[in-house]
Every structure is written in structure tokens, then in C-alpha cells.
Amino acid sequence: MRRRQLKKNGKILMIFLFSIYVKIVDYLNQKSSNELSVSKLDLVIMLSKDHIDSFNDNIKFYRKYLNYTNLIIISPASSSHFINKDNSIRFINEDTLVPKAAINKFLQVERSRTTFKDYWYEQQFLKMAYSRICKNEYYLIWDADTIPIKSIQLFENEHPFFDMKTEHWEPYFQTMKRLLSKLTFSDRSYISEHQMIKTEYMKNLLDEIENNSELKGKLFWEKILMAINSKDIDGSGFSEYETYGTFVDSRYPNFYIHRNWFSLRIGSRFFDNAKNLNESDIIWLSKDFHAVTFETYDKFNEQNLEIVKNPKLQQKYTPFRFFENFGQIFSEYKK
What we know:
The chain is of the alpha/beta class. The chain has 15 helices and 11 strands.
């Protein structure tokens, strides 16, 4: 009887151990596939003077949660003394890709603009122009004001992800229609503070834009500036994320895998900057969000920081529910 029970227990143990083995093999196969796809991957960040101070706080999040080979910082020449202190970072003078003075002159001469959001457009053009010097199959563009707060899988079975959100700004699509033909538009947005770029596809996009004879200009960024409506050019008339995503899904359907992406864009209002995020905050936030953005124009409120860091409230609310109901939570907290 006892021997029979031992034999039965042995079978149960073997089945249990085998199930663990299968899970481990499956995990390693997935990890191997993902690592193979990103064995040579550049993480590319445009760094303006407004984000230099926060960069040292953010870099630890890139290193912890993103699987990349090289960190490429594209920034003004005046930033080189700061960037070059870290030998693991490659610095590129932005003027070697798309000269700022040339953009300004073009806007003044061709679009009669003396005041405009020049860097808004410039940083987008830089992300696109990097494809023409990138030596790897892929590069990952990432907004300097955003940090990942959990490990981000970048590929699945050799296919990269498009991380999708819900957003629609009509001027972006009007510009796209003037730049490119035969486009298929998604009902979701490709704007997610980052994007995995297949170098070949981005170069094809730039070539197709430059081959558009209906728009004045020779270089891709000149034609983009000419395609933007006059009423939109002083604001936000073009999106590199929306344009690349739409182009790729139109020309190379089903190559990218679409998935939902959730980010907290109001990080500045509650935490001010990444320095104020401790491990428990990250664990809590990562239950619902993939990333946190710290907009420079958002106003920080110290009382918000006190409330959001309250352990009892973090235990009571999921991050989604907390931020959705913050007005009510704030009123109750003040009582």
C-alpha cells in the first residue's frame, strides 16, 4: 500500500517537474527569439537642452527595461561635453543629419514663417534621417521625456511590435495624404512615445517622399514642410510616428504586430521627474502602465506627490482607477 502510494506520488512529481521543464524551454525559446532579433539594436534618443538634466535620471530605466546594443544620443553640438563623459553612449551632432539653420531658412523663405515650432519638426526629421546612417536592421526611437517602467518585449517570432494608442489629430493625416499615395489608415494611433523602426522601411519612406514631384523641395524634410497646411505649420502639422506606421502598414501589411500600449503622460504633475519614483511606485504603476512621460510644460504639485505615494491609496486603487478618480480622491484626502 505504502509502496503504491510512493509510486503514485513519484508519478505526480514527475508530471509536475516535466510541466516546469516545458515552461522553462518555452520561455528560453521566446527569449532566444527575442534576443536574436535585437542582437544589434540602436536605441536612439533626441536630446534637447530641456532634457539634458533629466537624462542622467532616465538612463537607468533604459538600461534596465530595454534590450538594446548601442545608445545613440542626437543632440546639439553644445551638448557633446556632457554626453562624451559616458563612453557607453555615442553622440551625434544633430546638424550633421539635418542642419537646424537649413530648416529655419527653408521655413522663412518657402513658408514665410519667422516664428514656429522649429524643434518640434526638427527632432522628428532627425529620427527619420538616422535611418540613412544606421548600420543595423532596426533601431528604436524613444522620446527623451519618457521612461519605461517594465521590461518591454520588442519582437515576437522575428516580427516587431507597433504599440498602439487611441488618438487622432486630423492635420497629421492631411499632411500624409499630400506626401504619399495609396495609404490605408488605422482606426488607432501609432503615437506611443517610441517606435521600433526597420531601417530599410524608413529609408523607403524617405525615398518615396523625395520622389513626390508635386511638392516643392528636394530633401524629404523640405517636402514634408511644404505638405503641411499653412494653418497647422505653427502648431503640430506632422507626426513621424503616425506617418511611418501608416506607411509600413500600407506597403508591408502584417509585418508588424499591433498591440495596446498604456502610458501615463501626466507624470510631471504627480512625480515631477523620475528621481521621485521609488521601487514601490514603479511596481504599482507598472500594473497598468508600460511607461511614464514627464512633460516639461506640465505643472508639478507637491500635494499630488504626497497623495500618489500614499501606501494605503496605492493598495486601495489600481493606477488606472487612481488617476481616473483623482479629483474625488484629492477632495477626500484634503478633509
